[in-house]
Amino acid sequence: MVAVGGLVSLGIVVLAGIVLGNVSLPVSDTLAVLGHRLLGLPAGIWPASTETIVVELRLPRVLTAMIVGMGLAVAGTAFQGLLRNPLADPYVLGTASGAALGAAIGVLLPIQVAVLGFGVANALAFCGALAAVAVVYRLSRGSESRSSILLVGYAVGSVLAAGLATAMYLSGDNLRRIVAYLLGSFANASWAQVVVGLPIIVLGTLLILSRARSLDALLLGDDAAAHLGVDVRRERRVLLALAALVTAAAVALAGLIGFVGLIVPHAVRLVVGPSARLVLPLSAVLGAAFMVLADLIARIPGELPVGIVTALIGVPVFLVLLRRSPGAYEL
Amino acid sequence: MSSEPLPAAVEARGVSVTYGTRVALREVDLRLGAGERVCLVGPNGAGKSTLVRCLTGLVTPAAGSVMVGDRLVSSMTRSDVARILAVVPGTVQLPFAMNVEAVVSLGRTPYLHAWSGPSAADQAAVVAALNRVGILELRDRDVRTLSTGERQLTLIAMALAQGGTVLVLDEPTVHLDLRHQVQVMELLVRLSDVEGMTVLAVLHDLTLASHFFPRLAMLDRGRMVADGPTAAVLTADRVREVYGVEPRFLSGLAAEAAVVVEVAMV
Fold first, then answer.
1. How far apart are CA A123 and CA A255, in angstroms?
2. Nearest to residue A149, comparing CAs of A161, A135, A159?
3. Could you tell me if B162 and B107 are in contact, meaning their C-beta atoms sit under 8 angstroms apart?
């Protein structure tokens, strides 16, 4: 029932995300265009501008918001489960600082080329996020405790943040572009980006979903999970890699959008309990819907950074949920 | 015991483990015949937990070997081990909004596939495990509302849901009141005597150990100092030497073996 509700609300916000904007389109024309282009229904009569806006502008933007929201929410669920820490989010192991530093360097580099809609900044953000997690994983290997990987993640993140601060300090006129990246946006979404980003995020998400049983067993702790048949070391390595990959793709597409990966999994757990078998798919749906909605709200006043919207709206909603939830709440 | 030895369910041969420079286990042998009920005792730091971790394959010994069934545990996957041997965790907290049935269902983890949910066989195994432990009526209870004793029974049911033949319990009675201690012990007796499961329990309470276990294995400073019928292992001299306390025994009670009822520092 929760799943149906989630899918219905996703459908509604997706339609709203396509219809509403600078130029609002009639719902009937929009549905007709979508039916024509996606399902091969016979073409009707609608203004050519409607088709251009739907197909070239709104659809790629909404799709990008969907996959980024889905990816961040699923990666957040995985990180929280793996680290058994309710404060974990997709950015916890240095991915945010790594991506931000990469993007800042990309903005400042004198050579600017774009392939498939991805500039140097996008590419370096992707690499920076993955490199940061790889370094954190290497440095914390051999230690069994979860706190140590969190502490190493914090340390590496702090060093990278210092690098980012340096880049921003030296950036001069480019500072605005770096800040815009840090706050996240879907204004530059394009079909090319969807074509590259969607397979990575969808595949990564599906692979994480396929390991839900390991995350469930890990609820009881490492030893108990091992006794339940989970190869804890291997599962942790694989899940960390997948969650980092999905996060890196998401930040390369849209910049650093906060709170979605932290709050959506918790909101889902408050409703359905901690079982990853339920939390992962529902977080995927809710994350996608929430991100499309946040982007829609960000567009109304004229391109506010979407990261501001996710915080301003997501956090109060989450706090209300938390207060209403019966009893103590644990991961 | 009969002259024909039982086939081994779990067997450690010459197992040694060192942590850094500290020797945790020194050439320890322990053979659990199929269907046996054995209690592992010894003072803190004797190596009981390390031995249990070797038997379940979580620790690879520096020397020696461990067999589970007829295979080396080091050659088995975690799922292989989990389908034969279940461990009841000693001190797991269950702070989640899950019901008892969902926690017991975690015992089916070694049988689950990537995409399908629990099968009918999995669900039947969960209900059977709840029944064997006698907590079917708790199945819909939120685990956060359980008493310590009920939580322990839930964890035992989870282990039974794994469908194995060997049950290992690390201090299953710690924090339990007397009634729940006896309830858990009687459950273990039934599981081994009636259902033929092999049971190994680590206990600190020598009275419970002597009352409910026909065989004791005693570790002291990484060595197996005694292994055999409870009455033969639990002598005043050995308790004095290993634990450094003066035991006083009462015999002639319901139990065959002597019961340690009162102790004083040596």
1. 11
2. A135
3. yes
Tokens of A193: 């980006």
Amino acid at A142: G
Closest Cα to residue B192, out of B108, B132, B233, B148?
B132
Q: Could you give the 3-state DSSP secondary structure of residue A65?
A: helix
Helix (H, G, I), strand (E, B) or coil at B132: helix
List, as ranges, residues 58-117 from B with C-beta within 8 Å of A.
58, 77-79, 81-83, 86-87, 89, 92, 94-98, 102, 106-107, 109-110, 112, 114-115, 117
**Whole-angstrom distance, CA of residue B151 vs CA of residue B146:** 6
Pure H helices in B213-250: 230-233, 236-243
Q: What's the CATH number for A2-324? A: 1.10.3470.10
Query: Which ipTM did the prediction report?
Result: 0.87
Tens digit of each residue's pLDDT (9 = 90 or more) over B124-138: 999 999 999 899 999
Query: What is the residue extent of each domain of chain A?
Result: 2-324
Q: State phi, psi for B99 to the nearest 5 degrees.
A: -90, 170
In angstroms, the Cα distances linking B6 to A210, B1, B201, B217 are 41, 9, 19, 17
Q: Which domains does chain B have, with CATH numbers?
A: 8-265 (3.40.50.300)
Beta bridge partners of B65: B13
Please, is A315 exposed, middle or buried when counting C-beta atoms within 10 Å of its C-beta (0-12, 13-18, 19+)? middle
A220 and B92 within 8 Å at the Cβ level: the answer is yes
Tell me which DSSP letter residue A245 carries: H
Would you tell me how many other CB atoms lie within 10 Å of the CB of residue B93? 12
| Least CB–CB distance from B102: residue in A230, A275, A330 | A275
**CA torsion, points B192, B196, B200, B205, in degrees to nearest 10?**
10
Token pair of A89 as six digits: 């989010």
Which residues on B lie below 8 Å from A217 (Cβ)? 106, 109
Token pair for residue B157?
A: 């049911």
**pLDDT at position B254, please?**
43
Cα separation, A44 vs A29, whole angstroms: 9
Structure tokens at A92: 């916890």
Residue range B219-261, pLDDT digits in tens = 999 999 999 999 889 888 888 888 888 887 776 544 444 555 5
Measured in whole angstroms, the distance separating CA A150 from the mean position of its chain's CA atoms is: 20
Running along chain A, 331 residues long, what does each successive block of 10 average in pLDDT?
82 83 80 81 78 82 94 94 84 88 84 68 88 89 74 89 88 84 85 90 95 91 91 91 93 88 89 89 94 90 85 83 64 56
B224/chain A closest Cα distance in angstroms: 25
Alpha-carbon gap: B223 to the closest alpha carbon of chain A (Å): 24
A269 to chain B: which residues are within 8 Å by CB?
97
CB A46 within 8 A of CB A67: no
- pTM above 0.90? no
Give the one of B95, B109, B144 whose C-beta lies nearest to A230's C-beta: B109
